[in-house]
Amino acid sequence: MNSLILIGRQLNQTNGGDNVSDLHRKIGVSRWDGSNFIVDQDCIAIEALVTVRINGNVVANLLASPADLEDLAIGHCIAEAKMSEISVDDFIISIDETGAHFLDISTSDDISSLKPDERIITSSCGACDRDGVETLMSTIPIVTTSTVKFSAIAVNEAIVEMKQRQIGFSITGGIHAAGLMDGDGKLIAVREDIGRHNAVDKIFGHAHRNGIDINQHALLLSGRCGWDIVAKSARMNCQLIASIGASSTLAIESARQSNVTIFSFVRSDKGVLIGQSSRLK
To answer: What residues are annotated to the active site?
Structure first.
């Protein structure tokens, strides 16, 4: 049995996430300079196996960046509809000698309906190991429309600010980000992860832990928007997703089905809107 190093609960997380050193480490490489290979070091994004357990039951095995782990654990469980609410009595992080992280949530909540899941979900896709996408799409809830109207200009400005706060990406070039913007255009949180969907889980976990009403906020993405992120957003009652990159066909179908608005290819002078245009001004 592998030995464990007990880390304990992560405290004092800021809106910028955990220490950036949790996102990368230096690795020996050979660098090509156009004529020769030179022995050097490079900062590489960390990808670790992260196991989430609730009262000892394995509910997820993720390949993720080992930062903001309480946000990740809680956000994943709620956004994937494993539990609608989680009251955390205790949260313990431990790491074995292989570098695998174990996140143990203790709760007094009723978990009798919780389904254990020991499959590994890769960092490249939150749902690509699953069958029956059409069946899963049919279970996506309908998002309610609030009175909040988001400024298209403010969305772009918040995305620009999010880029500036992507410290992990600036160091490694290999980490995605998600952000949360309020109705006044303020960027209130940024989370980074090697997996797009993990970064989104971290944002939703942060919101849940801090009592933030997702329906009054917009989710920001540093890359493209896939259907799995739309599904997570719908489960969290998030009405607007704004992304720097494109949307997939399934993302668009899911958004229209669940009453989510996608604002993609966001730039200072343009963007592509899918869904209710009344949510933007």
So the answer is: 125
